[in-house]
Design brief:
heterodimer, A: about 110 residues, four-stranded antiparallel β-sheet, about 50% strand, globular, B: about 110 residues, six-stranded mixed β-sheet, about 0% helix
């Protein structure tokens, strides 16, 4: 049971470099989310998608872009990485129904030097 | 501004002690979820409470949803080292976006 798979698991970037984080889910979930987790800050929503081809901004979207070309994949892009984007990034997916849980991947640990 | 205030942020206790974690808001939620996260992993759902006043038990863990559906608590009886982890509460406001509002988490350490 794969569930939600995030790649890569670790990455170190230099300031100004770009990269894409990939999230793949095999549960046929409509909803997908990208969060960042920083010490003492809980999980903060970056962007989310309620279906293939749709995306929307969360509470901390600046410096990030996303795409959902296929239902099972949700990509998070950093066009020009900054040290403030050093964080652990989590992807989650959820079925279209009220009060259902989100299913999380194991995270991508990203360091920007 | 954090929609859900979770306290305490840190708890360090001895095995066998009891503890309570609180999650409070001025907003009403259609449900409240509790997750547990271990190092190097993503959060995993423990329980969902939906009805105001609801109490759910999961072995030594007791979850309560406030009557007004604005707050929740997690009580652990006779904590064990295996309970160590980050506990997160998350509120669902019932929108069609499926968005959850997370508290900042409680890092629990139980010493043998």
């Amino acid at each position: 049971n794969a569930g939600v798979t995030q790649t890569p698991k670790f990455r170190v970037l230099k300031t100004g470099q770009s990269m894409t984080l990939l999230c793949a889910q095999d549960m046929n979930h409509e909803y997908m989310y990208w969060y960042r987790q920083d010490p003492g800050m809980g999980l903060r929503l970056i962007h989310y998608s309620v279906g293939e081809g749709t995306t929307a901004k969360g509470e901390v979207p600046d410096g990030y872009n996303v795409s959902r070309l296929k239902k099972q994949n949700f990509l998070l892009g950093l066009e020009s990485a900054a040290p403030s984007q050093t964080s652990v990034y989590f992807c989650a997916s959820k079925i279209y129904a009220s009060n259902q849980p989100q299913h999380f991947g194991d995270g991508t640990r990203l360091s920007i030097l | 501004t954090q929609l859900l205030e979770q306290s305490p942020q840190f708890l360090s206790i001895q095995e066998g002690e009891n503890l309570t974690v609180y999650c409070n808001s001025s907003s009403v939620f259609s449900s409240l979820q509790w997750y547990r996260q271990e190092p190097g992993e993503g959060p995993v759902l423990l329980v969902t409470v939906v009805t105001g006043g609801e109490v759910k038990k999961l072995k030594r863990l007791t979850f309560q949803f406030g009557d007004a559906r604005k707050d929740s608590s997690l009580h652990i009886t006779a904590a064990q080292p295996g309970d160590t982890g980050l506990y997160l509460c998350a509120g669902d406001r019932g929108s069609t976006l499926g968005r959850l509002y997370f508290g900042r988490g409680t890092q629990l350490t139980v010493w043998p």
